[in-house]
Specification:
With 128 residues, the protein is mainly α. It has a domain of 36 residues. Helices cover 55% and strands 0% of the residues. It has 5 helices and no strands.
Length: 128
């Protein structure tokens, strides 16, 4: 039993020491976009929480006024700031078409074409 446990532990130890390859530029850009989206989502959540707190405080003051009780003095707080719509930072994250390989073949040619026939021989007549 001890030998089996030792062998099992040693087999997993090698895989735990392996390192991941460094992230690619595309992965870095995707991570930056995700971070920007998360930061904006956090700002929206803070804005909505601020509005909810203001509504709750106003409702509390109204209920005290309706009961003819005096409300405690309000604590000054900063105004709620709307973060606006999400605008992704695309300009810096997206490479130009030429750098993206849009006009290039998917792989570099390592061998000549599979036929040595000319276009005239393939179409059956001279080039026009």
């Amino acid at each position: 039993m001890r030998i089996a446990t030792a062998l099992l532990t040693m087999s997993f130890a090698g895989s735990s020491l392996a390192t991941l390859p460094p992230p690619t530029e595309q992965a870095k850009a995707q991570a930056a976009l995700t971070a920007a989206r998360t930061a904006w989502t956090d700002k929206v959540a803070q804005y909505k929480l601020c509005l909810a707190i203001d509504r709750t405080a106003a409702r509390y003051r109204d209920s005290l006024a309706a009961a003819a009780k005096q409300a405690p003095p309000a604590i000054p707080t900063p105004a709620c700031v709307d973060p606006g719509p999400y605008v992704p930072p695309i300009a810096a994250a997206q490479p130009p078409l030429e750098a993206a390989g849009a006009h290039s073949p998917p792989a570099t040619a390592v061998a000549p074409p599979s036929t040595n026939s000319t276009a005239a021989e393939l179409t059956g007549g001279p080039k026009k």
